[in-house]
Amino acid sequence: MLHTGDVIGGYLKIATRSDLYMHLAQTETNTKNIAVMTKEIWINLPVKDLDKSKAFFTELGFTFNPGPGNTDHSASMLVGSKNVVVMLFTESMFKGFIAHEIADTGKGTEVLFSIDAESREEVDALAEKVTKAGGSIFGKPQEIQGWMYGCGFSDLDGHRWNVLHMDAGKMQM
Question: What is the pLDDT of residues 16-52, one digit of tens each?
């Protein structure tokens, strides 16, 4: 039987998400013994209408940082208990950062943002809020792999989000 921390083929076995977080918290260097420079991550998203996007995410229960990052062209949204920052930028401002074209979310998905839910009921409630706020559900709430329950939705600009309640007790290892 394998246990968290066992090394398999040169890879450290991580049994659960909390084991992964614990491992990462205890690891000060990467496998090449180079100091890890990343301390935080934030996500930048282009939006067509900043006010409508702020209203949409507020209706879903997200909060916005009242301080830095809020201008006529940007908003600093906070996600989760760790307050991961998702910066919403008007498309014109976002284009100035990327030196590239903005992806057409109507033709493809560049990234899927996954957020957790405390219960199946929270997943269902969020799906209802998405619809009422003007978003669209692309994956109706359902059981997944026998241990997760979730749904997928697109925000007003077509960015895709995944909401999951995970019952680790049902997870097969």
Answer: 444 433 443 444 444 555 566 667 889 999 999 999 9
Strands (E), the chain: 7-8, 11-12, 42-47, 63-64, 74-79, 84-90, 112-116, 136-144, 148-154, 160-166
Alpha carbons 98 and 62: distance in angstroms, whole number: 26
- pTM for this predicted structure: 0.75
The answer to whether 157 touches 134, Cβ cutoff 8 Å, is no
CATH number of 38-102: 3.10.180.10
CATH number of this structure's domain 104-173: 3.10.180.10
Q: Dihedral angle at the C-alpha atoms of 53, 56, 62, 65, nearest 10 degrees?
A: 30
